[in-house]
Amino acid sequence: MLSTRALVRVHEGLYLSGIIEERDGDGDVMCGQNCLHLASVCGFLSLVEKMVDLGADINAKEQRNGRGSLHLAVDQQNLSLVRLLLGKGADPNLLTSGGHSPFHLTHGLDGGAIRSELLPLTRPELRELPDSEEEDSDEEEEEEGDESEEEEAPYDDIQWNGH
């Protein structure tokens, strides 16, 4: 997490285009958020507005998973921020690296108002959740598992430590 001093510098516009790199124990970048992302996650509406007015890219994506500020506002269930970002030109059809729009992120959340705000702005083909690769892979594993069970011979003659 950033210190208060870093947030003040962001507010003065010194790091508008900088990337905040949070690193894990191995030194790998965890998220690659820019200052607008950080302000969005923290819910600093006036700071978000000021950065966008000063030229911050409202549709910039995180390096790691491709979420934009609008995705982060939906994740935080911050209706005021969602409205602010949409009013400033955030793209409601921006997709993450996994192919999810901000509207997709409202599924399963208590964000009925956010969902209502995004619904008319989201292209119809981006309203339904994309097919999950995990579901497909589970089905394939089950099919493979069924075949391998039939092919495997039972081993009842295995002994462990002489027993």
TrEMBL record:
Region of interest called Disordered, as start-end residue ranges on this chain: 121-163
GO biological process: cellular response to tumor necrosis factor; toll-like receptor 4 signaling pathway
Gene Ontology CC, one term: cytosol
Keyword Ligase on entry: no
Molecular function GO labels: NF-kappaB binding
SMART domains: ANK (SM00248)
Highest taxon of source: Eukaryota
Sorted UniProt keywords: ANK repeat, Repeat
Annotated ANK repeat ranges: 31-63, 65-97
Compositional bias of kind Acidic residues: 131-155
One Pfam family named in its UniProt record: Ank_2
UniProt record similarity statement: Belongs to the NF-kappa-B inhibitor family.
Summary of the function given for this chain in its UniProt record: Inhibits the activity of dimeric NF-kappa-B/REL complexes by trapping REL (RELA/p65 and NFKB1/p50) dimers in the cytoplasm by masking their nuclear localization signals. On cellular stimulation by immune and pro-inflammatory responses, becomes phosphorylated promoting ubiquitination and degradation, enabling the dimeric RELA to translocate to the nucleus and activate transcription.
Protein's name according to its UniProt entry: NF-kappa-B inhibitor alpha
Organism in which the protein naturally occurs: Menidia menidia (Atlantic silverside)
Taxonomic path: Eukaryota, Metazoa, Chordata, Craniata, Vertebrata
